[in-house]
Design a protein that fits this description.
The protein has a seven-stranded mixed sheet. A five-stranded mixed sheet has the order 3-2-1-5-13, with helices on both faces. A two-stranded antiparallel ribbon has the order 4-7. The chain is built from 16 helices and 22 strands. It is of the alpha/beta class. The termini are far apart.
Length: about 500
Amino acid sequence: MADTYVGAIDQGTTGTRFMVFDHSGQVVANAYEKHEQIYPEPGWVEHDPMEIWENTKDVVTTGLDEADLDPEQLEAIGITNQRETTIVWDKETGKPVHNALVWQDRRTTDRVEEIQEEGKVEWIREKTGLECDAYFSATKTEWILDNAEPLKMEASRGEDVRKRAEQGELLMGTIDTWVIYNLTGNHITDVSNASRTMLYNIRDLEWDDELLDEFNVPKSMVPEVRPSSDENTYGSTDADGFLGAEVPVAGALGDQQAALFGQTCFDEGDAKNTYGTGSFYLMNTGTEAVASDNGLLTTIGFQMSGEPVQYALEGSIFITGAAIEWLEDVDLINNAAQTAELARSVDSTDGVYMVPAFTGLGAPHWDGRARGTIVGMTRGTRKEHIVRATLESIAYQTRDIAEAMEEDSGVETTTLRVDGGAVKNNFLCQLQSDIIQTDIARPEVDETTALGSAYAAGLAVGYWDTVDELRDNWQIDREFSPEMDSSKADKLYSRWDDAVEKSLDWAQEE
C-alpha cells in the first residue's frame, strides 16, 4: 500500500498554502498562491472570497501534483485560517454577497465607540473574553448586512440583504467555515474560530443570543460549532469534485491556535509567538478561562474530541511582518531578507523609534485610531536606522505582551517558542531574545500553523494516536539567548512607551 499522509490548507491574510505532512511531521508537499489585497478606503481591507476558494483548489492540486501524490493517499485534511475575517454568502448559490471584511479592517470603529459609550465593553468581555474592537467578526457581519448591495439574482428579487438574512437565506462564517463549506457542503466552524467572532460565549460554549441580538445577526446565519479535532469529521470532499477523492475534513483551528497546537503547547503555561502579517503571542492556560487585567484576550485554544476545551491568553499585535512589507512598498528595502543586513550595518537606531500602527494598535493598547508613527529622526537619520527601528518595533511590541502575559498568568516565561516567516531572520530572533531577556526556541518546521491543523485532523482520524507522538516530532532548529545587558534592554524599551504615546488617537476623521 502507498504511504499515507495528512494535508493542511493554510488560508492566510496574504495567500493560501497547501502542505502535506508525514507521520514524523516532515513536509512532503508545499504549494502557495497569493491573493489580492483590496483597500477601498483608508483603514478598509477586503479579500475576494471566490478568489480565495479558486486559489485553495489550485494549491491543493498543484501541491499534490508536484509531490507526485494521489489524493487517495490523504487520510484527512485540516484547515487553518486568518481569523476574524468575515464572509456572508447565499445559502442556495454559495455566492458571497460582498467581499470578505479582513481582520485588519477598521471601518466599524465608529460602531465600536458607540458600544463603548453605552458601557457594554465589560459585558462583552465577560461573555467572549475579547476586547470590544472592530478586529472581530460581530461588527463586520453587522456592517455587511446593513451595507452590502442587494444580491442581483433571481432568487433574491433584489431584496434587501438584511431581510434575506432574517428569512434564513444567508450564511456567515470566518474563512475556515467558508473553506469547509466549499469542500464538504456543510456549514461548520470549530470552537477556536467561533471564539473570535465576539458572538460566541466562551464559558457556556454556545452562540450567545444576547450578543446576536446586540449585533443584529440572525441565529440562522451562524455555523454549527465543533471540536478543533473532530472524530465525527466535518464531512468529506466530493469524489466527483476538484480533488477527485473522498477525503475527510477533520480538523480546524484559527491560525494562531493552530500554531499553538503545532508547537505542541498542550500543557498549561506553554507559550508561543507567531510572526506573520501581525504577531500573536499565546499561552495555554489549561481548562480555565483566565481573565486579563492587562489588555490581553481570553480565548479558546483548542478542543479535542471528547475532551474539555483548553483556553489561552492572547496578545494580538496587528502589524509586525506587514511593517517589513511596508519598508518594501516605500523602496527602503528590495526584499525582506535585506532587513538583517541593513539593521546590522548600524550600531543602533540613533534614537529613532517606529510605531507600525497602520491599522491601529492591538494588545495591550487597543486603540483603533492609532496610526503609524516614526519619531526621533534627525538630518543624520538614514534608511538603515529606519529599517533597524522597524525590526526593533516587533521586539518591543512582543515585550509589551510578554510582560502583560506574566502579570495575568503568574507564570514566568523562560523559553518562548517562535514561528512564522519573520523568524527566519536570525538578527530579529537575537534582538527579540535581548529585548525580552528570554530564550527563544525556533523549531525545525516553522510552518507550524499548517502543521497544527494537520495534527488536529490526523489525531481525529487516528493517523496519530496521542499528543505524545506529536511532542516527539517537535525539534529545535536553533535557540537564541540574551546577549544584551538587561539594563540596556530596559533603557531602550523605556522610550518605546513614549513613542507609542505619540501614535495614539491620531485618525480623528475616519
